[in-house]
Design goal:
225 residues; alpha/beta; Rossmann fold; three-stranded antiparallel sheet; 9 helices; 8 strands; binds cytidine-5'-diphosphate
Length: 225
């Protein structure tokens, strides 16, 4: 059996990993896993159900029973399209808060691994290279200065018609970074064999070109793909 190749793209909030992963997946004709959206879906579903952010048992239950469907650029929760609802900053912050709990993470592990299908997968998140796909063939860790990331996130939100302030975004980004890096469960860090890419002064196209160049360097998958 041929096992599908995985390219992991990890990095902090608003480092551009989502956009880069999307374009790399398109260029390679691979499937895409936006793992952050799963944490955001748990955040939205649990908020709607009135679950307290400290109630790990119920949060884990929500994660384990997540009724979710993915389509190109769209996602449904219990049959309702929530593509925009999960992008709200408040949901991102709630996602980051519940992602510190190991049982919640464990409940999402298999769901994430199920995305690995032929011809291949590009997976973006925090722990794709370290925990979920430790055998990935290419691991990329994207970074960018906090200012560059705040500017990008601002533009992203405004483009979607969601109001935002740069000052609030900077503060939220720093808080979320700190929490993601210092948590005990799957902290945000590059895998030992990850390639680092600082995109502060790069366009999306340049970042995508670099990842594709690294991918080409690896050559064909052993076993034919
Ligand atoms: O947009 P942003 O990069 O902040 O967030 P995201 O990738 O959509 O993920 C939302 C939150 O889920 C992050 O702040 C992380 O705390 C958490 N997360 C995680 O713990 N592990 C992942 N593989 C992906 C996201």
């Amino acid at each position: 059996m041929t096992i599908a190749e995985v390219v992991t793209i990890d990095g902090p909030t608003a480092s551009g990993k989502g956009t880069v992963a999307h374009k790399v997946a398109d260029a390679l004709g691979y499937h895409l896993l936006d793992s952050g959206s799963l944490y955001r879906l748990v955040a939205l579903a649990s908020e709607r159900a009135g679950v307290d952010i400290a109630d790990v048992e119920t949060l884990t239950d929500v994660a384990a029973k997540l009724d979710v469907k993915f389509g190109p650029d769209r996602v449904w929760l219990c049959g309702e399209e929530v593509s925009l609802a999960i992008r709200a900053e408040a949901i991102g912050n709630r996602a980051s808060a519940l992602a510190v709990h190991q049982p919640v993470r464990d409940a999402l592990t298999q769901l994430q691994r199920n995305f690995r299908k032929l011809p291949g997968l590009v997976a973006d998140g925090r722990d794709m290279g370290t925990v979920i796909f430790p055998d990935a063939r290419l691991k990329v860790f994207l970074t960018a200065s906090v200012e560059a990331r705040a500017r990008r996130r601002y533009k992203q939100l405004i483009d979607k018609g969601i109001s935002a302030s740069i000052e609030d975004l900077l503060r939220d980004l720093e808080a979320r970074d700190l929490r993601d890096r210092s948590r005990a469960a799957a902290p945000l860090r590059p895998a030992e064999d990850a390639r680092l890419l600082d995109t502060s002064d790069m366009t999306v196209e340049q970042a995508v070109a670099q990842v594709l160049a690294w991918h080409r360097e690896l050559g064909a998958m052993p076993g034919g793909r």
